[in-house]
Amino acid sequence: MEQPVRNAMTIDVEDYFQVSAFAPHISRDSWPQRECRVEANIDRILGILAAGQAQGTFFTLGWIAERYPAMVRRIVDAGHELASHGYGHLRASDQTREQFMDDISSSKKILEDIGGQAVLGYRAPSFSIGPGNLWALDVLQEAGYRYSSSIYPIAHDHYGMPDAPRFAFHPNGANGLLEVPITTVRIGQRNLPAGGGGYFRLLPYAVSRGLMRRVNQEDRQPAIFYCHPWELDPGQPRMQGVGLKTRFRHYVNLGRMEARVRALTRDFAWDRMDRIFLGQQ
Asked: CB within 8 A of 239, min separation 6: which ones?
């Protein structure tokens, strides 16, 4: 019997007030005073993955790890991969080369010191590596990372590199960093998102399931799914003064998310990014 394709379950570990769309409305100085809900939401996700016998990769902010080291250790103790989401959710495209090196190096050290395992992977906040800052991939390699999941091959108003390959590739040659894009499906002349985020909450679950199955069965490739802890938290505080589009994108179907992630663990086989793409044991 043919083994099912192993897909990559990935979690971007950040809290609701740290999302890029809220940045114009929430000052970083206010972060320490805000109600943090990430720990309870991560514990909920760990429970879902354990019940579904699924393992995954947790791209974690250094800012979060410093404040919740016991949570980070629970992630590692459950057998999941710990990876970096940078320190304070700054977009890679908003940093100089020197600032970016400092950001990714400090977060890597924080996570390794707390988690006690090598941190090999990085995901840029808001998928903010693209045509204008591909130098960031070289910096990641210099800092000791082996793969990135930061280029999203779609057209989007906040990010995206639609001409990038849809599946894992080496942008700077075979000896360079491995880039693993979020899953898309090619329909006509466009790549459509099929790996999580707001689309997963907005569209019926059967649509997302069908698109990921198409990638597994027709492309014979792993699907890369991502979500955030706050997406499973319909009780989070509502931000005031944000635009209608931002409000819709952030809050649509939060109450349905937990059941959908549970369904994913039943319908697909899931594993860590490092095992699937780097052959780590």
From this structure: 17, 22, 25, 26, 247, 250
